[in-house]
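Reminder to self: keep the SMILES exactly as supplied, no canonicalising. Ligand is zinc ion.
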Amino acid sequence: MSFANPYNFVGIDEGNVQRETNWRSHEKLGEFNGMLTCEITFLSNFITENTDREKKPLTINGKLGIQASSLKGMLRSTAEAISNSCISMMSGKYRYRFMPRMPVGTSCSSKVKYTRIHDELGRDWLEFNQKSLVREEAFIDSCDDKKGLCICCRLFGTTAKEDPTTEKSFSYKGRIRLSDALFLGICEKNGNINKNINPVVVKYLHRHLSNPKNHHEAFYLDGNKIKGRKFYYHHNDDKLQDSGQIKVDLVKKEAVFKFTISFENLTSTEYALLLTTLELQPGLGHKIGMGKPLGLGSCVIEITEIKEFRQERYLSINKCAEKVFKNDELNRRKDEIKKWRTSEIPQDLRCILKISPGFTEIRYPIKDIRNSHRDEFSRYKKLHPPCREFSPDDKGSGRTITYSEQKKSERPGKSRPEGLGSMAEALKKAKKK
Ligand SMILES: [Zn+2]
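Structure tokens returned for the bound complex:
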């Protein structure tokens, strides 16, 4: 029976990160200021990343919530993939827990140097330098004042490491601020939000969800370079087995949370990227929280109100005209803003973020070093492409298509961003695809 790996990669175009060097100057500061009100609706159960020791979901002022930093992290990695920005999460050394029989030293195939590290708590780690995995080091070097800022660093902010020659560090707080998301209710079939349902369910798991998976070179690398940005597929149902000893509180699917994003000095391109990232396209969804490989944390975001503050010519300097977009006007405004982006969401990302990818099964390959017939890691020498599950083609050690080759094969032309409509409509569309 065929299956798909829980994650895949969105190709990167290392030589083509657009950085703005005079991003501070007056003419580079955009004209858009305001606030977006958003609703996030879960299509699967989820566990917030910031659960405490007792695995209780996060509460903010007594209300169930999702921390702004989790939302920001999720949105940023998606925005980075959409806009081919620098990878903020990938700089310097990377380590994962050392397991018996893990190879230490320089890998013959990738030439990556793996070192075994023993930390002060007595744990063993396997460490390698991520810079060895990219063709151009500048690609994963954080954006800074000198190099300029990519669109994601301008939106979400950045902290660049200290410059060893001047011992100066650089940080920029970005042009958007997210609030924490607070629980609104459970979205019922008719689209109404019911505030009176307890959104928390208890399950007992066999093992902790934070168990790190081995870094599997054949899947992560194309030759000796990183394949791209990692994203997890959406599942039809989560695969949590409710029969272990570890108690976790899950937030039920169909839970709806509300948050706001305030923004200042956005250019039209930045504004368009923000909206495209939030609402994606019908049929695509985001993933947040723990247990992504098991199918937890699938969600869609809908912008329910746009408020723009405009400096009107006839008003005094401190007075701004406020324009609120709701209902039909809101949808028209969203379409208008999204059209300011001229490029499509990369095909790899569209494939991975499909709410119903249509795979037979989604799971990790079976590792069994004693039985080569059962060992799927040795059967599949490389990861399947983002748009399909494993096939006999993945058994060889063939070359994968690079980002630029794939780009050429895509049809040219602008995309017409589609409106998402009401949440009920979005869910319907999402489930159909
Ligand atoms: Zn950047």
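Points to follow up:
Residues 285 and 300 are 5 Å apart (CA to CA).
The pocket of zinc ion is lined by residues 85-86, 143, 149-150, 152-153, 158 (CB under 6 Å).
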